[in-house]
Write a structure and sequence with these properties.
The structure is a homodimer.
Chain A (H helix, E strand, L loop, with lengths): L3 H8 L3 H10 L6 E2 L5 E2 L3 H14 L4 H14 L7 H33 L8 H7 L5
Antiparallel strand pairs in A: 1-2
Helix pairs in contact in A: 1-3, 5-6
The structure holds a DNA duplex.
Chain lengths: 134, 134
DNA sequence: CTTGACTCCGTATCGTGGTACGGGGTTTAC
DNA sequence: GTAAACCCCGTACCACGATACGGAGTCAAG
């Protein structure tokens, strides 16, 4: 068991952020001491880190909430969450594909720079301005 | 040549957003009619779409500004932008790796759901709560 | 030639994801 | 037993990325 300060420290976030996530429902309300201090189990660190990583990947807090709900309900209603999981998976794969396109563009730009080819047109645009599915 | 409304329509963004990007310096200031109306060339659509896609990939407007600058200055000072390009490339590759980790996690979760294995512990956490390099 | 849609600009407001503040009670360390 | 450090809660404020508003001018169709 640890205090909110220790939790925040270990997870690498601000104390206020912990309380904010609690308000948002991303963190379960922890046990309290008699005087009202929050008491966290080690699992809370893992949960906070999960949130941090997901956030770094571009998920909104709302989406992260959904991911966390998948986890919570997994044991109980496994197949019921399959659809949402596959939706997220598709989203992630789309992001990967687009980033790979950008990677190729940046890569060829870097290569062109290296060989001092001074192409008049930057390759980055070609790959990224192209088709737009919206 | 087109008006701001036509541009916004074609690029799939709000008119106000176009003006906002102009203020931010993401869009070059367009020509004006005598009466002061903005006049855009077709290239502006491509530029707006580029911004949209980059944003969807998790780049901030500031980073997008930098990406756009790479493009602009490429012809003139090619090797000078090489370093910044490679930095962006590393950023993109890191994002891809993290998304791929999440893809694996979600994939195994989906598979577990499908086979109704109702594992008591959700695989998604294992891969994502694990090591944390910060 | 007027009516409605479009544009101008400046400024205000919004949603998201926090972060800070401040007045109070609590714990820990000396 | 008293500082220092910590925690409580509510509320205020911040940056970012838009989006809305409003009063005025402009343009295109009937």
């Amino acid at each position: 068991m640890m205090t909110i300060g220790q939790l925040a420290e270990q997870a690498g976030v601000n104390i206020e952020t912990v309380r904010y996530y609690e308000r948002r429902g991303l963190l379960l309300e922890p046990a309290r001491t008699e005087s009202g201090y929050r008491q966290y189990e080690p699992a809370a660190v893992a949960r906070l880190r999960f949130i941090r990583r997901a956030k770094a990947l571009g998920f909104t807090l709302h989406e992260i909430e959904e991911l966390l709900r998948l986890r919570v309900r997994n044991a109980a209603a496994c197949q019921a969450v399959g659809r949402r999981t596959r939706e997220k998976l598709e989203l992630v794969r789309r992001k990967i594909r687009e980033l790979q396109a950008m990677e190729r563009s940046l890569g060829s730009l870097a290569a062109a720079c290296e060989s001092r080819q001074r192409t008049t047109e930057c390759p980055i645009l070609h790959a990224l301005e192209g088709t737009d599915d919206a």
